[in-house]
Write a structure and sequence with these properties.
Layout lengths: L12 H14 L12 H8 L3 H13 L3 E4 L3 E4 L12 E5 L8 E12 L2 H7 L6 E11 L2 E11 L16 H8 L4 E12 L2 H7 L6 E11 L4 E10 L3 E5 L4
Antiparallel strand pairs: 1-2, 3-10, 4-5, 5-6, 6-9, 7-8, 8-9
Length: 244
């Protein structure tokens, strides 16, 4: 449960605790209905005030992730935050009921010049600077998918100082950039894994995988994020909800 807090004052303590708990919930450490540590346990573990812990828990409750039952404690209500962008088409992990330890590993976090595709997707000037964030998501020691995020550097230059192996990018948008992603456009392909992708996903080269391109927009219809993702086809399947 316990992670180290940064007491330097650069970031509010309640936000740090909130982000730790958020990650544990959406990454599957807890299941719906699981009992969370009591406020007193968190106060003792993090050496902070009860008010600090309570603020963090209120933020989780406002996201619809947890609910408090008087006399019984605080339970996980949902594994998906209200601030997450909604998708008609989503990827669902097989065997999601398995108790696995989820983690993310940052492969690359750098500033590059946008190519023509990124320029078009994010509506940027030619050769604008963008942050390229590439991460691999694991369940236990098994790589599940690769996600590459491209962000306008002028929008989030301080993102280069963050550790997104531990912090949620989506939460960072909401709490630091004050941006909520409202919709996304997604294209899904079936491709063969090249040598590099196969190595990162620990599959044979030329293995069929899902390849996704996604543009996410904020509430003002401004494109904020361009994503390329590679999913293991033996681990994920498509779930499609149609409104008729």
């Amino acid at each position: 449960m316990k992670r180290e807090l940064d007491f330097s004052g650069r970031e509010q303590l309640y936000y740090q605790i909130y982000d730790f708990m958020y990650q544990d919930i959406v990454d599957g450490k807890y299941a719906i209905g699981d009992l969370l540590p009591a406020e007193s346990e968190l106060v003792s573990a993090y050496k902070v005030s009860r008010a600090t812990v309570r603020k963090a828990m209120e933020m989780l409750a406002n996201e619809g992730l947890i609910e408090k039952k008087r006399g019984h404690g605080t339970f996980v209500k949902s594994l998906k935050a209200k601030s997450d962008d909604q998708k008609i088409i989503s990827f669902v992990r097989e065997h999601s009921e398995d108790a696995r330890v989820a983690c993310k590993k940052v492969i690359d976090q750098s500033v590059i010049k946008a190519d023509s595709e990124i320029v078009q997707c994010l509506g940027l000037e030619e050769k604008a600077s963008v942050i390229r964030l590439e991460r691999v998501r694991y369940a236990d020691d098994k790589p599940m998918y690769i996600e590459i995020n491209y962000l306008d550097y002028d929008w989030v230059p301080e993102a280069m100082e963050r550790d997104f192996s531990k912090e949620s990018l989506r939460v960072y948008y909401v709490n630091h950039c004050h941006i909520k992603l409202a919709k996304a456009e997604e294209k899904i392909y079936s491709v063969l894994a090249d040598e590099r992708i196969a190595r990162l996903l620990q599959v044979e080269e030329n293995t069929p995988i899902f390849y996704v391109k996604r543009i996410s927009y904020d509430e003002n219809d401004i494109p904020r994020e361009f994503v390329k993702a590679y999913y293991r086809a033996d681990t994920y399947y498509l779930s499609i909800k149609l409104e008729l």
